[in-house]
Design brief:
5 helices; 100 residues; 53% helix
């Protein structure tokens, strides 16, 4: 029989306070605003082109909502309830039309 003892933590007690201090220094920001900022800087949404036409998605906010819903495993129905910008049919259409 193989028995493996649990390892003790090698993180100093002060690390917890350091992490909390770092979080306090970060500005409060909505995740959707952060996604838009990253997209503006990198253009990553351009990688999600229309399946038939190959053109980039014209509804960037909707696409970011879909990506966030997928990334959080939230689902489109819940995302449609959580956002005021898109209803379920619009999010579902974006999902089908702009697969990567």
């Amino acid at each position: 029989m193989l028995k493996i003892d649990r390892l003790s933590s090698a993180v100093p007690k002060e690390a917890d306070e350091l992490v909390l201090d770092l979080y306090r220094r970060l500005p409060a920001m909505r995740i959707t605003d952060l996604l838009q900022e990253v997209d503006n800087d990198t253009g990553f949404a351009d990688a999600f082109t229309h399946l038939r036409t190959g053109s980039p998605c014209q509804d960037r906010i909707g696409l970011l909502n879909v990506l966030l819903a997928e990334g959080l495993n939230l689902g489109l129905s819940k995302m449609a309830e959580a956002t005021s910008s898109h209803e379920f049919p619009a999010l579902a259409h974006l999902t089908v039309a702009h697969r990567k």
